[in-house]
Each structure stands twice: as C-alpha cells, then as structure tokens.
Amino acid sequence: MRILILGGTAEARALTQALAVRAEYAATVSLAGRTAEPLPQAAPVRSGGFGGAEGLARYIRDASVDVLIDATHPFAAAISANAVRAAESANVRLLALRRPPWSKVAGDTWTEVESVDQAVSVLGQARKRVFLALGRKELQPFTAAPQHSYLVRSVDPVDPPLGVPHAAYIAARGPFSENEDRALLARHKIEVIVAKNSGGEATYSKIAAARALGLPVVMLKRPALPDVASVATVEEVLDVLDHTLTLSTARGV
Ligand code: NAP
Questions:
Q1: pLDDT, tens digit, for every residue of 220-230?
Q2: Residue 216 preceded by cis peptide, ω within 30
Q3: For 106-130, what is each residue's pLDDT tens digit?
Q4: Among 46, 73, 89, 220, which is best to mutate for testing ligand 1, by the most ligand atoms less than 8 A from CB?
Q5: How far is CA 46 from each of CA 4, 33, 179, rounded to the nearest angstrom?
Q6: What is the DSSP letter of 203?
Q7: Which atom of ligand 1 is nearest to the CA of 73?
Q8: What is the C-alpha R_g of the chain?
Q9: What phi and psi, each to the nearest 5 degrees, are found at residue 112?
Q10: C-alpha of residue 102 to centroid of ligand 1, in Å
C-alpha cells in the first residue's frame, strides 16, 4: 500500500518510522521545504509545494498513492484544505493525524486570540518583555508594537530580523524541558508569552513554565481545519491502515 504522508511534524516523523519496518507499506514523506536542515526521515522525502490542490492530486495519481495522510501542523491550514480537495479529485482515502489542542488547567492565565494581529493588540501600549514562540512567518505584525522587547524562539533563524529596536533571537528546535524554559524566561525577565495552541508534548514546556512562574500567555487559537476522518495518535493511524489493508486484500484489490 503506497502512502503519502504530508509531514513537517514530530508525529509525521514517528509515523514514518513506524511504517518503515512494515513491508506491506511504502511511505513517502512530503515536506514544504521551509526548514534549512530538516531532520532525517525513515522513508523517501519529496520537498516543496505541489502547486495547489490540483498539483497534489496530480502527484497522487502519478505516484499511484493509495492513502493520503495529512500529518501536518494544526496551523498549516492551507495544505490541509488542499489535501481534502486533492483526495477527492484523485479518489484516494484521506486520514488526518491531528494532535489535540492544549487545554487550560488550574494556574494558567491565558488570553485566547484568533489572530496574530489580535495578539499584538492584547499586549497593550505599556512596554513589556515578550517571549514570542512563533514561526518566522507569524512575526511581521509585531513591528506594529515596537515599544516591546521581544525574545523570539523559532526553528530557523529569523532573517531578516524583525523591524523593531529591541529583539533577541534563539534558533532552536524542540523538545524543550520545563526547567530549561523556566530558566530561559527568568533569565530574560519575560513578562508575557505569545504562543500558538500547537498541542503535543515537544513544545508544551513553555506553557508549563509560564504556569510555574505565574506568567500570562497570549494563546493563538487554531485555524479552522477541514472536517475529515482524523485520529490523534500514530498507533491509531496504523490501526486504520491495517484495517484498510485487510479489507482491500479480502476484496482482492
Ligand atoms: P500552509 O500555510 O498550510 O501551506 C502553505 C503552502 O505550503 C501549501 O499550500 C503548500 O504549497 C506548501 N506546503 C505546506 N505543507 C507542505 C507539505 N507538508 N508538503 C508539501 N507542501 C507543503 O503550511 P505552513 O503553515 O507554512 O507549514 C509548512 C510546513 O511546516 C507544513 O508541512 C507543516 O506541517 C510544518 N509546520 C508548520 C508549523 C506552523 O506553525 N504553521 C509548525 C511546525 C511545522 P502548494 O499549495 O504549492 O502545494
């Protein structure tokens, strides 16, 4: 069974690893190609955009893909929407691997916002020391609030740097530990954190650290994602695939 995994997440990588040891599956991973040094994968990788939903559908047909798995980040809404249209057009099964969002627990002080622009306005006028745990493409709106001091942590370096007078940068890839993040936030005297509700364990450390230090979090809500068959874990994906394979074998497909 040929599987195309739309990746770019820890879960997609774990799924690729799990499928690599199963002879009945041949997986290919698709990455957007944004990260300068992507982590190695346990399967062949193709990189770069497909050129929209039709391009993805064409790829699926040309590569005789049987199942498309959307294991992209929950904030990667465009590719998830394309996956739905492409799967329909190429008539293949689509399964989404989606990690559940984080939920607020006792001790958390979150202001939930719908957009980065809203996050900027929630920071207010008074000068603050802000930790931005965001990707490069989400940073631009903060130039509208140059009074704040920003500490930016992203996977790839922010180049060119943000057009604000006070900004420091950390290029680092999770997972991070709560202790590490507590120390970081304390060292930089951070007063507020802006984060995306990514879910998962790899980047939860900053949320736990904020709670421990009594810091507020401006939390970006997830974009609306298409309503498709979805599961939350790699094990569940394997179950669905095994079931699909059993049915196809029984039908002699
Ligand atoms: P996006 O806004 O949903 O997608 C923009 C365009 O990038 C898509 O239309 C597609 O181009 C291309 N693309 C995205 N993911 C792709 C993939 N896995 N394979 C091939 N092309 C892909 O995506 P994004 O938010 O920029 O995220 C890009 C990648 O980074 C995703 O793979 C995602 O899983 C990963 N990632 C994103 C975030 C985040 O916060 N957004 C965080 C961690 C990892 P075409 O239309 O030309 O096909």
A1: 999 999 999 99
A2: no
A3: 999 999 999 999 999 999 999 999 9
A4: 73
A5: 10, 9, 36
A6: T
A7: 34
A8: 20
A9: -90, 135
A10: 21
